[in-house]
TrEMBL record, chain A:
Keywords: 4Fe-4S, Iron, Iron-sulfur, Membrane, Metal-binding, Repeat, Transmembrane, Transmembrane helix
Record localization: Cell envelope
A cellular component annotation (GO) from this entry: cell envelope
Name of the protein in its database record: 4Fe-4S ferredoxin-type domain-containing protein
Automatic annotation (TrEMBL), chain B:
Subcellular location: Cell membrane
Organism this protein belongs to: Desulfoferula mesophila
Secretion signal span: none
A single GO BP: anaerobic respiration
Protein name: Ni/Fe-hydrogenase cytochrome b subunit
Record has Transmembrane as a keyword: yes
Membrane-topology descriptor: Multi-pass membrane protein
Record keywords: Cell membrane, Membrane, Transmembrane, Transmembrane helix
Family: Belongs to the NrfD family.
GO cellular component: plasma membrane
Major location (coarse): membrane
PANTHER family: FORMATE DEHYDROGENASE, NITRATE-INDUCIBLE, CYTOCHROME B556 FDN SUBUNIT (PTHR30074), NI_FE-HYDROGENASE 2 B-TYPE CYTOCHROME SUBUNIT-RELATED (PTHR30074:SF4)
Stretches that traverse the bilayer: 16-36, 57-83, 95-112, 132-151, 171-188, 195-221, 233-252, 273-290, 310-331, 338-361, 381-401
Amino acid sequence: MELNRRKFLGLTGTALGATALGKPGRAQAARAYQPPPDAYGCLVDLSVCVGCRKCEQACNQVNHLAEPERPFDDLTVLDAKRRPGPEAFTVINRHYTGRRDERNQLAPTFVKVQCMHCQDPACASACIVGALSKKPNGAVHYDVSKCIGCRYCMVACPFQIPAYEYHDPLTPRVRKCTFCFERISQEGGKPGCAQVCPVEAITFGKRSELIKLAKQKMADDPGRYQPTIYGEKEVGGTSWLYISREPFAKLGFQNLPQRPMPHLTETIQHGVFAYMWAPLSLFALLGGAMAVFNRRRDQGEGDK
Amino acid sequence: MSAHSHAAPLQGRARFWSPGALVMAALAVIGFLFVLGRYTGGLGAVSHLSQSHPWGLWIGVDVASGVALAAGGFTTAALAHIFGRHAYEPVVRPALLTALLGYVFVSLALLVDIGRSWAIWKPMVFWNPNSVLFEVAMCVMIYTAVLHAEFLPVVAERFQKGFGASLANRSWPVVAVAELLEGLLAFLNRNLSKVMWLFIIAGVVLSCMHQSGLGSLLLIAPTKMSPLWYTPILPLLFLTSAIAVGFPIVVFENTLVSASFELEDEMDILSRMVRITIVLLGIYGALKIGDVIYRGAWPLIFDGSTQGRAFMVEVLVGVVIPWLMLLFPAVRNHRTPLFIAACLIVGGVVINRINVFLVAYQPPYPVQSYFPSVGEMAITAGFIATLMLAYRFTVYFFPVLSPAGKEAN
């Protein structure tokens, strides 16, 4: 009886595809992923950044990227909004929010953009071969030796970060901020950008410590900061954290859900494929149907 | 399965190089030239793919629509072999062939689309069971192998009398190789036929898995998808639409083939078949419309946006109108209106896949909007043309179609 019921559930399960949605308890259990507890992070204090582009330059050197068309001390680059790309893993954008400084000039706010190194990264969940993975030190690491170039990571990333070498015919790579994986794997190592920042807008450290630090800064200087830490809860948390004087929505930050992006797909996936119960049940059911229908035919001959 | 088939090669009944076939050959050559461009200049040289739009026409049409339109294979196999409706036997082989060629061409299209074509085997070694794409890839790969097994009886039947006279004047190594192949084919056919039922059921199960899996792909990008299409039941919608389009694609293909080779069509079978489509398409339509109302996303249909209009066209032209048409016996029993209804359903599924993968996808920081390039369109057209030529070639030399009427007399 139990078996029959399970077979039945199996059919509906596969047929519905999204069966696990109805059973969140089981599905939660199916998703065992835990973000690394001791991850590093970077806290960016946007109220401090002066937009000097030294971090871009350091990133370029540390990662051996190509020389840009316009030099890093050319600040007119900031006149247009940019996105990270295959040859620039981080960019600074200038935003005017309407705030005026003490001389009544429109005051700019500079925002550093790079891979956020999510705690529960959509790209790593999506990657067909596991070329992208979240490391215990916090970095979302790209292993080019596994990559097949399907670009599903780019589809999955809510921050639109992974960039692709579209003009390489045979060995294109997915390119993004590496969190200076090699450097931070060494004792005392810091990402190039955090090391170089002349105004100490970027603080490198344990993510949990950085959240404490951010809250300390807010408490020490009431009214200076927005009351949220961007990246603390967004998409399940990110290793890069931001605090700001201006509302994040005015600075090109998206309003993102707190739930990790892979939640739904992995819930469905592991709900349907746990012990292959759904495919096997469907197989059994169809086999049964086939036996019944063909016996009926052999006995009666003719279809109708 | 081969025992009760009246399928025969069309060789001798018609010309292979019809004007249509020549046009297809030309399109295939043009497409191939652009493929060369892709392998010398990279994806960027022939496509409008960008950092904000990593997936384009090839994923939406060649892959997603290609897989959906191969659904005729598993739906007819289920109908005739699993549910024992053997009257539908004559359309199983052509549907199987369409599916087989469809999957082969999906794989080839993927080969062009992925950046590192030579690494396409890597998912077999590096598994990521969290990835929906991994599941889809595995199912598609295994199902393609299953389709080859299911198609083997057709090849065996073709060569059952051996190569015969064609070998009369050949030297002994040629004869030896030919005999070896014959023996192998006969051996495989004999033994596979005993376990063919396993393959047939596996084919249906694998299809259900990856057809729905294809719909799960974009569930990982909730913030980038228009709410008109982003729904947790997207896998279910993909599965039900694939099942619903299975018989219309058989009608579509059957009508084209019988027109092209001047065969008698199989209207009696097709008319009966599409009665089932009324139910299947009805289920899909009800789910689709019910879902958008239940989630409260329906006002977006009428907001005047491109997405709203695309959704409206998809549902009206691809689902509602053909469904209403099929309700009338006058449509079901006559070749031209039935063909039109089938075209609408097939087109509706293609529009749906394009909508889900391209129109619904709205990146937060658009670098440039996406519209397929000439190169992308040429390669897609080239693939479709090659597929049709391969189909023509196979039915010409292998017993796939059952040319009724004339043959019987």
